[in-house]
Amino acid sequence: MNAYSEDLRKKIVEAVCGRGMGKSEAARAFGISLSSVKRYVSMAREGKPLAPKKRPGSKPKLDDGARRLLARDVEERPFLTHSQRREYLEVVAGVSVSDSTVCRELQRMQRTRKKGA
């Protein structure tokens, strides 16, 4: 689920704190949970920013340069194995990844190893 926008959060806080709307009434009016309304009002009273936090997770193993190299390699040599592509990336880009990472990246690029019809 995507986070609610900062603009919506500000409108909720304004409705509760500025116009005196009840928290449960604001939750129904804006179509969000009561706990979210409480959290946003609490954050505003404490002076914390209402902007959504960065999503958790680790940074991608392949940067944009490595992705471009991989895409170009697929165009030039379409029948290599994932292991060969992994070794290519390690030598050319200096990026050490697994065969599974190469496979997932090729899937994201919507590339398959199947021969054309």
Report on the architecture of this protein:
The chain contains 6 helices and no strands. The chain is mainly alpha-helical. It folds into 2 domains: 6-45; 64-108. The protein starts with 5 loop residues before the first helix and ends in a 9-residue tail after the last helix. The model has no long low-confidence stretch (mean pLDDT 90).
- The total of beta strands comes to 0
- Estimated share of beta-strand residues: under 5%
Alpha-carbon distance between the two ends: 38 Å
**What is the number of helical segments per DSSP (H or I, 4+ residues)?**
6
Main β-sheet description? none
Which series of helices and strands comes N to C? HHHHHH
Helix content: 55-70%
- Helix-and-strand structural type: mainly alpha
How many domains in all? 2
Q: How confident is the prediction overall: mean pLDDT?
A: 90
Low-confidence stretches: none
**Which term fits the overall shape?**
rod-shaped
CA radius of gyration: 24 Å
Short description:
With 117 residues, this protein is mainly α. It contains six helices and no strands.
